[in-house]
Amino acid sequence: xDAQNGSYIIYSSRQFLNTLxxxxxxxxxxxxxxxxxxxxxxxxxxxxxxxxxxxFDFPDGQSWKSTGRRVFDIYVQGxxxxxxxxxxxxxxxxxxxxxxxQYIVPVTKNFLEIHLFxxxxxxxxxxxxxxxxxxxxxxxxxxxxxxxxxxxxxKKNGSKTGMIVGVIVGLAVLGLVAFAAIFVWRQxxxxxxxxxxxxxxxxxxxxxxxxxxxxxxxxxxxxxxLLGQGGYGSVYKGKLTDGxxxxxxxxxxxxxxxxxxxxxxxxxxxxxQHRNLVKLYGCCLEGNKPLLVYEYLENGSLDHALFGxxxxxxxxxxxxxxxxxxxxxxSYLHEESSIRVVHRDIKASNILLDANLNPKISDFGLAKxxxxxxxxxxxxVAGTFGYLAPEYAMRGHMTEKIDVFAxxxxxLETLAGRPNYSTKDENKVYIFExxxxxxxxxxxxDVVDPRLEEFDSEEVLRAIKVALLCTQGSPHQRxxxxxxxxxxxxxxxxxxxxxxxxxxxxxxxxxxxTSYMSTDVSGQSSSAPRPNSSTSQTxxxxxxxxxxxGR
Length: 551
Description:
Elements: E1 9-11, E2 27-30, E3 34-40, E4 45-53, E5 71-76, E6 79-86, H1 87-90, E7 99-107, E8 111-118, E9 135-136, E10 138-143, H2 160-203, H3 211-217, E11 226-230, E12 233-239, E13 245-251, H4 259-271, E14 280-284, E15 291-295, H5 302-307, H6 316-336, E16 341-342, E17 351-353, E18 359-361, E19 368-369, E20 377-378, H7 390-395, E21 397-398, H8 401-416, H9 431-440, H10 457-470, H11 481-489, H12 502-509
Antiparallel strand pairs: 1-2, 2-9, 3-8, 4-7, 4-10, 5-6, 5-8, 11-12, 12-13, 13-15, 14-15, 16-19, 17-18, 20-21
Helix pairs in contact: 2-4, 6-8, 6-11, 8-10
Region (Disordered): 515-551
GO molecular function, one term: protein serine/threonine kinase activity
Organism: Aegilops tauschii subsp. strangulata
């Protein structure tokens, strides 16, 4: 409950025990949740950090007000020094008694951080209206070494007049420099504030974390915590002060994903909640590298599990549940959420797996909100070749059916345990042609990954039919995702697919080679290898019109 006067300073006129300077403890700074102090520009070395506390919000004696508790954690330089620290309990159960805590801490990079964090274990029944987070009366940091920077003593011999003139001139110059610095700083701050307000106006005000907290969580964005890299930037594993593991997405300064895409990702994922969509914990808008903070998913991406260097042997029930989970997530985005969302970049690398191998759709930087009243939206093409629907790649016509097409590709990759383009076997270069050849020869089960010794043939055949329906050339021939879910679960029968897409026939007529399967729109290599330039041909007319929106 907010304090009546809205102040973060509390006062007391009482005398304090266990101290010779009672005046020092008569006021204290407090916060409902977190207090953070920074020492900037300090000389590197070991310092003695002294923190002084005294509880006076809860009086001694047997009364309702005396039942309150103030419990918080103390972090210095990102290291927890005290857990569940209770000022009054440390003082022997007495209020108005000074408590001192001292720590020897290293200062590196000329930076010191002291963080008092409410751990959620304090009073549950507030005695009086006010704040019951961390509180502190005084703090200091004293170097345990002789500083190398000292004030130079004025020379005894010299002209007093010259010294006065020098001081005046120096002060004048310093004043001008300070004025200029303040002016530049205010302009930059104003510009940054306007930029942040612009982002806030787009996405509202999500849970904003400080850059310092995320830097500490990722060990200063250590390479040891790097989970992956792409055209957008890098993703790091981190651990917040409350113990949660997170994935911190750091947008690169060179990334083509601008503020609008960054804001879109925050806005979209903040407004949709589903067990098969990755959760957004918060963001950081400080500096030139905006950060997104997601839940950490232990088993990485689906493409890594299926055909990465450390690929795992996913059994058939797990693969089927992954396909079904992704279908449910897309069905929610297209038909069930309060806003209609087209993801635009469904692919194996954007499907993450949690500890139980449940799939979660991630990376909403290219997502578009879709109007039910429009048949389609014309937009610049963005995404990854090999997953792009023909009408989208050729004309930029965007409907939810482009996600359906990409989902069909992911299902085929999951069934076969291989990317949609591969040079390992000349007869199986493109997964579409290979699967259709087997399907027309009545050998559809030959698609299944050889590593799967056991599988449910009925489920596999059902998944193949669904994938072939989803990758039809015309968007009108592709089913909505709700029907895809029903067909996969067996609630609706999956029909036999009799129409081979025209784009496959076109490849075969023109020689069967195309770069469609292997090139990322952003110019980044996809998980599939790129064909040799001496043998690759662009044989599909809708490829030449594809343009790079920036990824």
